[in-house]
Amino acid sequence: MKEKTFILGAGCQKCGTSWLHRYMLQSGEFAEGFTKEYHIWDCVDIETMKMMLAPRPSLRHRLQKRNDALLYLMQTKPGFYFKYFDSLCSPEQRLTADITPSYSGLSEERFRFIRQGFEKRNIKCKAVVLIRDPVERIKSNISFMLSKGKTGAGVEAGVTDFVAALRSHFKTEECRLRSSYHETIQRLYGAFEKKEVYVGLYETMFEPAQIEKLSAFLGIEPNFEYSSVYVNKTKNKTKIEAGIDPELEAEIKQTYKDVYEYCHKEFPQTRELWG
Q1: Terminal CA-to-CA distance of the chain, rounded, Å?
Q2: Domain span at residue 213?
Q3: Which CATH number characterizes residue 137's domain?
Q4: Rounded mean pLDDT of 3-29?
Q5: Engineering a disulfide at 42: which of 49, 135, 168, 229 sits with its beta carbon 3.0 to 4.6 angstroms away?
Q6: Phi, psi of 123 (to 5 degrees)
Q7: d(CA 16, CA 193)
Q8: What is the pLDDT of residue 13?
């Protein structure tokens, strides 16, 4: 019998995490909770995420909005987090996950705490982190924010110009938290055995060979039909990004040079894929 397994999605934003969630769900072995992104540990630990902490619910609120009450319990009673995911699993559906992209900013100590919390319940804990050319990831996020009218992280209300939004965003703490792949990966390697951490490249993750590799890591049968499935792809991306100053892209790349250097060394294919 396959063992219960919890997948910790540790990022990164706009790197295929929605596809990952959908892919696990279609397997038939995935025990789905009430959401893809729980935002427990980031809200507890990361200052810029604390505004998303769930408020203490009233008794009536607990009955009417059960999911909000569950989030509050997970954020205030750590043991409840592990109990909740344990309760989702069954012999038929032994795989479950919390895929919250901003977990990329969690500390090594927090990653270790999560792994040990599940191991105490005899649940295998593995981590998946998906990465992408940082410049393209940041551009994709700005496209998404503008298409949804979202603000914050340097993007002010009323801003509709892509280049202006990109320029004001890429040096913010929020952007760094989601773009510093090298730091996330090293913290994961410090908290997990290396074989328990899957690093996937957005640029190649839809290829059959990578789907097979990911499936083996998750312990599910590969479904190669998902090589052509794209989830939450921002519309009109090319039109929105037309006319970007190459010097601005070069400045972003220079800002995240440590990310490029680390990934070029650890994942040599990024030299060609990311330039």
Answers
A1: 44
A2: 5-274
A3: 3.40.50.300
A4: 96
A5: 49
A6: -115, 125
A7: 23
A8: 93
Angle value at C-alpha 19, between 146 and 22, nearest 5 degrees: 120
Phi-psi category of residue 180: left, alpha or beta, with phi > 0 → left and psi -120 to 50 → alpha: beta
Cα–Cα distance for residue pair 154/195, rounded to 1 Å: 37
pLDDT score of 271: 96
Number of domains in the chain: 1
136-191 per-position pLDDT tens digit: 999 999 988 888 777 777 787 777 788 988 998 999 999 999 999 999 999 999 99
Radius of gyration of the chain (CA): 19
Burial per residue of 92-116, b for 16 or more beta-carbon CB atoms within 10 angstroms, e otherwise = eebbbbbbbbbbbbbeeebbeebbe
Amino acid at 68: D
Encode pLDDT of 32-78 as tens digits: 999 999 999 999 999 999 988 988 876 555 545 789 899 999 999 98
pLDDT at residue 117, as a whole number:
98
Rounded Cα gap, residues 134 and 179, in angstroms: 6
CB-CB contact of 14 with 144 (8 Å): yes
**Beta pairing, strands 5-9 & 197-201:** unpaired
Residues of the chain with pLDDT > 70, as a percent, come to 92
Nearest to 176 by CA among 229, 112, 113, 102: 102
Q: Which residues 6+ apart lie within 8 Å of 93 measured at CB?
A: 28, 29, 30, 31
Comparing C-alpha atoms, which of 4, 1, 2, 21 is closest to residue 89? 4
pTM for this one? 0.91
